[in-house]
Amino acid sequence: MNIPGLHFLYLVLVVRLLLPAPAVSAEPPNRIISLAPNLTEILYAMGLGDRVVGVTTFCDKPEETKKKPRVGGMSNPSLEAVVKLKPDIVAMTTDGNPREFEERLRSLKIRTYVFKARKLADLPGGIRDMGSALGRKEKAYALAQEIEAAVKRPAFSSRPASKKKVLFIVWPEPLIVAGPGTAIDDVITLLGHTNIASQAAVSYPKYSMEAVIRQAPDVIFIGKGHTDIKGMSQGLLKKIAAVPAVKNGKVFFLSDDLYRMGPRVVKGIGEMSACLR
After folding, report:
1. From CA 24, how far away is CA 26, in angstroms rounded?
2. Which structural domain, as residue segments, surrounds residue 250?
3. Is 160 found in the same domain as 143?
């Protein structure tokens, strides 16, 4: 028996199955834990600071962050502290957070977002992706566009009169420097100079004083970090007193702006650029 009504319903069902599902506009998570200082700064820049319920011991910017509950360090966050805060999502990074910790969170059905940008060129895309994942697409895209425009400033992209050999010290003893695949290496190249550690096998290699003396950097940068790095560096600087950077007073202690792949990276580029003029 031919029933037109049934044929019509069948046709409607087929059409619905073939059409793409309507896009769902996800609301930003209400409770966010950040496991990296740069992610905390990005979250605040995207207007999500009031939804951040937990941060690491290294998260100190912006100022309001210091009032947030702490869940441990980047490399050793406390699973118990994270679970206790009942997050909707935990923001993590491949540059410092253990992959095993993400797997443990997922096994507990705790949602995670992993920020993958490590190089300067990847930062705008990383911010856009993070904003889309957390329901702050518009603000994230605006922030990414600001960074892209700033990096293309003539003051940063123009070639210097003379190319300098640069060394960026992350830690003085043991001597650890910034090598390839880091934002610091990218910035040195962007400014038209040469990172003497750019050919190292890892991103943050251990370096010998003999190698520093042999490669004779014209400029040495030392990142301030979270301790009295200036005092800790005096012994090293005495041992390499013969290199041009030390002899000519071209040793500079920089802020942590370039350590954090986030909104302050442009400020860090400007800081390094001023020292290289």
Report:
1. 6
2. 155-275
3. no
